[in-house]
Structures are given as structure tokens and as C-alpha cells.
Amino acid sequence: MTTTFSLEAIQAMDRRFRANLVNSLAGYKQPVLVGTRSAYGQTNLAIFNSLLHIGADPALYGLLVRPHTVRRDTLENILETGAYTLNYPSVHMMQPAHQTSAKYPREESEFDATGLTVEYRDDWPAPFVKEAPVQIAMSLSERLDIQSNNTILLIGRMNALHLDPGLIQPDGFAELHQANVLACVGLDAYYQPRFLERLAYARPDHDGPT
Which range marks the domain in which residue 153 is found? Predict the structure, then answer.
């Protein structure tokens, strides 16, 4: 048995209920802790669930940011300095990683508030999270303003990658589950992924399941 929600019914939903429903229906995602530092040296850390793979040559990731109608320290720092980091939280980092979503004053660093550790690498101006098993240095490449809802897509280029080399398979595949990297659904539900299988490259002449 299924229930059908018309456009009118969806629009008539309680705002918070609709947000939870639509967010969770987007499915499992990769949460990342985005580390930034303002031009005057204030560090900031915020969790995002909107990381997008844009391309591998050059290595580009997209980050979707809510409309800039209120103070958004992460967005403002990235636009101001052009540098940021992506840090993948592990299962053991779940609580402090989620806590970075709280609205702290601009002058209070989420690193200090949550107990996560600032780490700087190779003179990169933006802070990494020392506890994160995967750390990526990113530089802003492009900003796209989405007219449909005024969100902002930041496209960044990978400048450096820091991780345990044992996570990388001979063909380049990164086994994130080996590092207990979190997955998330919506804004507040977290999961620990379980590896099933890597399948062969699909070709038209390949026999399907029997």
C-alpha cells in the first residue's frame, strides 16, 4: 500500500515536516566538515551534506550552500579567501561533527566549541580537522547562483589530499568504509556504511542476473 502526495499536499505540509521529508528522501550522502579561516584569522568549522563530485580532470567538487540572506561564515570565508578544507568525519567523530551545525557567534570557533583539533598542513591557509581520516585542501574555482531557490553552488579544485595510503586500492578506488567514514540522511541522521561488492564495468553485451 502506498500513499500519494500531490503537489498541493506537499506545499500544504508543515514547513519543518516538509523539510525533513524532502531532505531525507534525497538518501544517503557523504557529510563533510568544511574548515575555513577568515581574512583576520578566525577559524570556522561547519558540517555539510551537499558535497558533489563535479569531475576528476581537473579534480573538482561542488558544495551547495543555502541562500546568503543571513550570516554564513563558511560561505563568506570561502568567498573572501578562496581556500577551504573538506574533512571526512569518522563514526567516532559523530557527536562533535554534528555539533558544528549549531549557530555559534562569529568570534567563537567551532573547533574550540566541539573539541575538534585544528591542524595546518603544507602552508595551506585553511584549517584541517586533525581527527579526520580524510582531509582535502580545496581552492574556490567558480560560484554558481541557482535561480530556482537562491542557493549557491561553490565549485572547488582539489589542491592536496591527505589520507592513509592503505585506504586506496591499486586502481585508485578509496575504501572509505575501512576508515569508518560516516554517511548521513537529512540533517541529523547518521549511518555507518557497509561494503557489499564492486561490480564489473557494465557493457551492453554483459549477461544480466539470472
Answer: 28-164+176-191
